Amino acid sequence: MLLARARYGWSGPDWGRWFYERGGGALFDLGVYNVTALCGFFGPAQRVTAMAGVAIRERVVEGEVIHVEAEDNAQVVIDFGDARFASVTTGFTMQRYRSPAIELYGADGVLQLLGDDWAPEGYELWRNAKGAWELFPESEPGWQWTEGLRHLVDCVESGRPTVTRPEHAYHALEIMLAAQDAGRDGVARTIESGFPDPVYDASFAELDAARTHDRRSHGGL
Fold this sequence. Notes:
- The protein has one domain: Dihydrodipicolinate Reductase, domain 2, CATH 3.30.360.
- By secondary structure, it is of the alpha+beta class.
- Helix content is 29%, strand content 29%.
- It has a 9-stranded mixed β-sheet. Strands 3-4 form a two-stranded antiparallel sheet.
- It starts with a strand and ends with a helix.
- The longest helix is centred in the C-terminal third of the chain and has 20 residues, at 166-185.
- It is built from 4 helices and 11 strands, in the order βαβββββββββααβα.
């Protein structure tokens, strides 16, 4: 993969003042999903810069007008090294959208992930050798975002490592904090942390298949 574009946002909540207070904001509420996913595809980031700020100064939250302190609008650019780049568009400023959640561009094709991270809708694949778009529906339309918790429990019970590690989450946090700082002064930040490669092998596939069969046999979760 050489280049990527990710997007996640909406018009913003009218509940929970913390979304708009210092320490909140669209990047930490929404863009975090894109940042985490992009690092999963590209590996650890090396550098980040951003434009971020408050586009809508006042919001009505729980019936009261509040002053917005946390960034509600952001464009983040991530450098993964070897001239491989990705951008993240996020904000409480996006009324609607119809574009893919993530687009990945490679030397021989393009992958478009449909839906959002928490509600995947399959993907579209372009391969130069084939010369046409192929649509692949979501393989698990009944998938729940809470499967992450189930995966953690399965790993604890079986003694296996999780597919992703705490270091991956820490790395994403460092990127977002650096992007927030870069949004204030326009200076790109070097990312110091890294994380190990995801661990996914046949044993995980067998375990996932068994759990899926069990859920379906018992009518869901």
